[in-house]
Amino acid sequence: MNDSGKNIAIAGNPNSGKTTIFNALTGARQHVGNWPGITVERKEGRFSYKQISYNVIDLPGTYSLASYSIEETIARGYLIDEHPDVVINIVDAANLTRNLFLTTQLIELGIPLIIVLNMMDMATEKGLEIDTETLSILLGAPVVKMVGRTGAGAEELKQAIALAVEKGPVSHDIQIPYPRELEAEIVELTSELARRKIARDRLRWRAVKLLERDKTSTEKIKVRANTSPLLANVDNAIRRIEDIYKDTSRAIISHARYGFIQGALRECVRETNATPFDYSREIDKVLTNKWLGLPVFAGMLWLMFQLTYTIGAYPMDWIDSGVAWLMSALDKILPTGMLSSLIIDGAVGGVGAIAVFLPNIFILFFIIALFEDSGYMARVAFIMDRIMHSIGLHGKAFVPMVMGFGCNVPAIMGTRILESRRDRILSILINPFMSCSARFPVYVLVVGAFFPQQAGTVIFSLYALGIFVAIASGKLFSRTILSGMSRPFVMELPPYQMPTFRSLMLHTGERGIIFIKKMGTVILAGSILIWALGYFPREVQLPKDFTALEIQALDDWKLLSDQIDQRFAESVEIGKELYSSKLTPFEESQGYQILSSQRNSLHTEVSVARDSVIADLHFEQMAETMEQKWIGRLGKTIEPVLAPLGFSWRESVALITGFVAKEIVVSTYGVLFGVGSEATEENVGIIENLRKSGMTPLVALAFLVFTLLYTPCLATIAVIKRETGSWGYTAFSVIYSLILAWLLAFMIYQIGSSLNWLT
After folding, report:
1. CATH architecture of the domain with residue range 6-167
2. Taking the chain, what is the end-to-end CA distance rounded to the nearest angstrom?
3. Domain 180-271: which CATH class?
4. Is residue 683 pLDDT above 50, yes or no?
């Protein structure tokens, strides 16, 4: 908790627009971490209004203040223990009945409350007119209308926050009316809690929670001394209530809350349309259709990758040129030696090889943010629900899998939204097969070298293969090591919204900054390690004298060039002897120009051929040199294991470095091919050198599949251990993915070779 400024908590249902309001208040002045001791994302930001600073905490989305899920536990614990100055309750104005259920519990907590009716544009489209003044009186809290995605109402919300903070703590006069017999038990239990000095505040709320059989409240009572009589009285009260109303105490309390909500809405909500048009429902007739939903989703993914590759190609070239210019400038400034090589080839070359793909990464994040903010991502979980049931999970489990497109680490943390340990472990084991953004630069590099015309289709196929392997593996695990079915789950589909550019930029920026930070830490460290392996030992024995070969080649091409000039001169003389008396001066001049043009064309061809031969010699020298460095020796040691897949020692060492972080595969190729080590026009980049390395399109395809499936990065392995709490499951995940990647790549290469496919 930040001690400076006033503390504001944002609470609300999932999909009510909490994060949108959070972004509207804090803008870029926010940071993301984890709740202390819990691997659930914590968003905190700041804003200033009328010279007062406010700290804003975005609580996890929750439907109630029970403690059945980790999100409910976090939200409830923060509200009770941290005593925020104001709580902003975000309510979906188009779904008041469901959203106000949480509001009734916040009212019972007696905390300073501001109710924000978000998505008012949606409510208007549904034909709802809401009397906010009456609603404010009935709920005992100020009510602010907002359209979070456009920022409409943000100024009014800040004014309401400032006024609430100025007033300080208030006592709510509003109480949820319960049935007479239940109310009597609440009053009696409240008096007993006060008499026994169990708590100093929120006595009525605590009494209600005990009568609801709230596990957390009961456990807190049990740890105190001499509370057995109190708990016995609670049990007796619950028994009496349930005997009278023939229902569980929890259901009776819930019915009373919903009754209060319905009564309030009758007073302040009016429907102006007899049959309001529901845009979301009409769109869902296509996007979540039984037969069309999955093909539309597949088409969306294909379009995403096609756009990512096509649009990203232009800024990629600019960044590539910028990196080459920087390396050339440093090469001229820094004295030759180990330090300059470390800076140019290790740091700038390694990180620069990844920086080239930043446009693709940001475009990918932008489109994912577009899916999320529009409400389509929730439909993806709904579409996949039937398929997920086939592996013993429900559609909710696909949400962390989709998060894996960004990064497997938060995606695996996101499995905590699943209720049972069996569901969480099963989701964790299959999540690494979802192709994260770290693999994306590898795809762009290899696809750009061998499949540039089919780039979007190839990348889409890799992502689709990852989903297929995840589902197939889940089916295998659910029938063997993790047999059983998940608990039933009712999935909520939020209304479609038109995302704002500001919101999309914020979400894209958040993820992009994380990736850039990774470039400056893990990738930089990995690049320097790869540089060291490629720099030492300094002295190596090459099988050829490449300097002599280059001099000989230059001499040969100079001799050929001289021969062309000599032939030209001879042709001119012969022409003069044969035709000078027969041709006009104009015709003689034309003949000379034709011969001169032919000579220049021959010189150009010779020059291009010479440069190609010299470049091939440089590449061969670099390859022979690297093969004898530590990095080459390491690759040669592992090469026999990967040779059946068609991989050379270069692919072997690149995949080893990918254990640290998949992006380092690209950095490794940058070091192996010495990209930028010589600031000349001969440097044709990683893509061209990859083509010249001997890799064929078939080997490239096998390499892509292996990169997709093999052991996840160290950070992912660490989070698997932390979330499962088991070295056994962690080791199983590593070994299983490695074996599976080898087998599939082996099949692709061997079958493709036998059919002469892509060779």
Report:
1. 3-Layer(aba) Sandwich (3.40)
2. 60
3. mainly alpha
4. no
